[in-house]
Amino acid sequence: MTFARPDHISDLGTLPRMPTWVTSARAETLEDVAFLSGATLNHLHLVLGREEVPQALLRDRLALRAAEACMVFSGRPERAGELRDAVHLLRPGDLPGPAGEPYLAWRRAAERPLSTKALGRALPAFEPGQIGTWLDAGEGAPVTRAAMALEAVLREAPRADVAGLILADAALAQALGWDHLVPLLATCLKRADLRKQCDDLRLACHRALVSSVTEATGQAADLARRAAHLKAVAPKLRAKGAGNAVEMFLTRDAVAPSALPLPDRAARRLCDRLVELGAVRELTGRDTFRLYGV
């Protein structure tokens, strides 16, 4: 596998930027907040259409943020580091536990093209028919459909915060014509928002999207720069299988050396080399059981 060297990494500065009138606005009414959330979603739609944005990597990193938020909602202490460990250091036959399960659900929901089957894989505790009913619970504008899906899930399954938020993002993506779910709502909703209904919940969703989409577009620009640098240094890697390894880094938030398509020692050497080149970072701060990511 080969990677083209970008001619001008500085060209990534041409990614469209969120207008300042969106980020500086202080709207209070449902009408005004809905206008701002629509503007941010339109901006994200443009960003997601850019070839230089590593789509799968962005979704995987946003899935981690969403899982972190769900830990907060449930009162659990695990944050990004513990969630990564719970999933990426699993051995065959191990169970992910109460921290790993929500993270796995978000990753599975976001990694495959949006469909009831893919959502069923992410949420195995629910029947596909029930998932489809919840997904189609809303009508009207995209954020309204998302809020109605969330409300429908939590009305019938009050403790299913993860399922409700995943299906809300799925309903949003479906209404916007996106091929994949993009984790957005969970990261900026508050715990109390999950118990709201009707216009109050719609207002909370609009407000959350203004913040979360602004963060997501900034994350997209950062990952585009990092991905371009990784592709630029890829030709310097001599290890057999390095191309496939680079592809994994371009699609996953974190990678354990043992997951790379290389012998253990060669995989560790490759990770060290990529860190030296400034193309990936070691994410744990540990001497052993390390994880690496762009």
Characteristics of this structure?
294 residues, mainly alpha, two-stranded antiparallel ribbon, 13 helices, 59% helix, disordered N terminus
Descriptive report:
The chain is an all-alpha fold and 294 residues long. It is built from 13 helices and 2 strands, in the order αααααααααααααββ. Helix 4 packs across helix 5, helix 5 (97-111) runs antiparallel to helix 6 and helix 8 packs across helix 11. The relative contact order is 0.15.
Beta strands, count = 2
Percent in helix: 55-70%
Strands side by side in the biggest sheet = 1-2
Judged by helices, strands and strand pairing, the structural class is mainly alpha
Largest sheet: 2 strands, antiparallel
Instruction: Tally the helices.
Output: 13
Unreliable parts: 2-12
Mean pLDDT: 94
Based on CA atoms alone, the radius of gyration comes out at 20 Å
Distance N to C terminus: 19 Å
Q: Topology as H/E string?
A: HHHHHHHHHHHHHEE
Shape: globular
Strand content: under 5%
